[in-house]
């Protein structure tokens, strides 16, 4: 597997060292086992309950309601896997990796090892045009220079990518599975055999349940609704965090690299639950091992310190965060629209 810096061990500088001291003194880096016991139990029960409802509803078009419920549940399982990858939940790495593979590979059909490597590189260099895989020019482009030379379907998407953003998110769930398979074929990850086995079990059980319980038309409808809504929900939890924020050149110190490229989203407890705590993106990037429920408490400390040292701290509403991201996508595609 590609060697990367641990998610839970950021490089420190003098400004970050002082902030780290204040946060540590407040006890916000301590684990929250009771919170995660409740969260993991609730998420597991929702997953089991969703599939139980699927079996009870049986071959009926009402199963599409279950598909929508399971789309939300799958996204919450993926958010739990995110916290497991950051070692927020368990004391030991082994326990986190076991639970992460169960949640990621077996639960939602996404390679935990592939995603963790990709996400680690994102944390090390957020929004960096060459080093952050989340802004690499693929279907969507996040830097103007990436627009030049795009022709055909790619050119069409680049020209209209702001309007196509949410429709394209319907394919995110499938893309995660395809990328996982490609990573397994490359063979550059730890525990490749285990990862592959768990993914196969997920696919066999998932497709087997659809084909055994539903008619072919209902199975197809369930698959489309479930995977599309899962992709949209999951994409909407990550889109507000960095899209449309500055792209660094790599010379910034750790604190500025993380704060200036991130955006917080306001909205209260409901947004906290819906986005899995990722709405406190600045605090999460500064302290990736900080348990999710502590991010809210760290926010005023971080905001006050950034104001003290003169570092811009971006915080906005959920709707405004999407407006900013879509505006950025529209501006990036402008060269191909002749403006």
Instruction: Summarize the main sheet.
Output: 2 strands, parallel
Estimate percent helicity.
55-70%
| Strand residue percentage | under 5%
Q: What number is the mean pLDDT?
A: 89
Number of helices: 15
Spatial order of the strands in the main sheet? 1-2
Shape: globular
For the secondary structure, the number of strands is: 2
Secondary-structure element sequence? HHHHHHHHHHHEHHHEH
Low-confidence stretches: 1-12
Terminal CA distance reads: 43 Å
Structural class call reads mainly alpha
In short:
The protein is an all-alpha fold and 339 residues long.
Describe the structure.
With 339 residues, the protein is mainly α. The protein is built from 15 helices and two strands. Strands 1-2 form a two-stranded parallel sheet. The longest helix is centred in the C-terminal third of the chain and has 27 residues, at 216-242. The termini are far apart. The model is unreliable at 1-12 (pLDDT under 50).
List keywords for this structure.
two-stranded parallel ribbon, mainly alpha
Describe the SSE topology.
Blueprint: H1 14-25, H2 33-57, H3 63-85, H4 93-108, H5 112-124, H6 152-159, H7 161-169, H8 172-186, H9 192-213, H10 216-242, H11 254-259, E1 264-265, H12 269-274, H13 281-286, H14 292-309, E2 315-316, H15 318-332
Parallel strand pairs: 1-2
Helix pairs in contact: 1-14, 2-3, 3-4, 3-10, 4-9, 7-10, 7-15, 10-15
